[in-house]
Each structure stands twice: as C-alpha cells, then as structure tokens.
Amino acid sequence: RRAGWVHVASLGEAFEAMQAMARLKLLRGERLTILANGYGLGNMAADVLLRKGGRLAELEDETLKRLASLVHSKRPLHNPLELPPSLGAQGWAEALRLILADRNTHALMTVYSPSPFAASTAVAEQSSLASQGTRQNIFTCWVGGESMQQAQHICDSHGLLSHESPEKAVAVFMDLLSHARNRELLM
Length: 187
Fold this sequence. Notes:
Layout: H1 11-23, E1 31-37, H2 41-51, E2 55-56, H3 61-71, E3 81-83, H4 89-101, E4 107-112, H5 120-131, E5 137-142, H6 149-157, E6 161-163, H7 166-186
Parallel strand pairs: 1-2, 1-3, 1-4, 4-5, 5-6
C-alpha cells in the first residue's frame, strides 16, 4: 500500500489500470458525480460505488437549480443525476459543463444507454468537447454492446476513458482513488 501499488484480480484489470494510470490526472478529491440517461443506470452505478467504499459528490444548490432548469424538472435533483431520455446531445454537453463547474465534483462518470432521442455518437462528440480543458477525470460508460462501440471510440480518441458497464467504470475510479490514497500514505 505504502508503495502506491494497486491490486488487480485479472490480466484485463491490469491493462485497464495501466491505461487509466497513463491517461488520467491525479484526483483532487474523492467525490464522484454520476450522470446517466434514464432512470436506473445511475442508481446501479451509485450502489456499486458505495459498496466499494466510494463517495458521491453533494452538488451545490446553484448547480442543482441550473440542472433542474435544463431538464425542466419539478422534482428535486440529486446525485446520481438521471437525465430524461429525451434530452439531446447539446443538453448532455450543457449538463456536463454545469457539473464540471461544481466545486464538489472531483470526478465525473457518465452512463449512457441507447436512446431514440440522441444518437450515442452525437452524445460522445458533445461530451468530449464539453470536457476539454477540465481538471477533473471523466469516466464514460456506454451500455448497449456493439451499438456503442463507435461512441466509445470517439471518447477514447479525445482522451476520455470508456467502459462497457458501470461496474467497470467504478472499478477503474476506485483503483485510481486507491492509488491516490496510497501515494498520500507514502508521503
């Protein structure tokens, strides 16, 4: 632990951890914000995060007000943020910008499943553009098998890590968090 090592259980996890360590920035904190389309995937990701000892970010009131206005929600929003399936790619980009501007978000994970309202490739392109220049790490998750491979490729080409399931994205985030904690112990 004190040497900063990260434990991995398989060769696949080792490659994912190496890619993450090479491409990601050091964490500024431990709180993760989860953004998902639909209702359920975000909660699944949050459950996995909390079971593994991670922490959800508590977004500022102003951020939540702006997000509610963006998605036309009358019910209170919270993390994980579950955007309506009808929100288009531009709406996704604006939601990302709002979340990344929130000082309580130390990292962001997006979870996207196929939607007839916004093509995954358009969401990937807009998400990649919205994330340029940010200090936070962004973990993208594209649920939907082969139909999401092009979206994953777009994000990868812009330096964002892409995963096929919320569990894998959370595992990589927790590995990065473990590495940061271990480095702190070493210091």
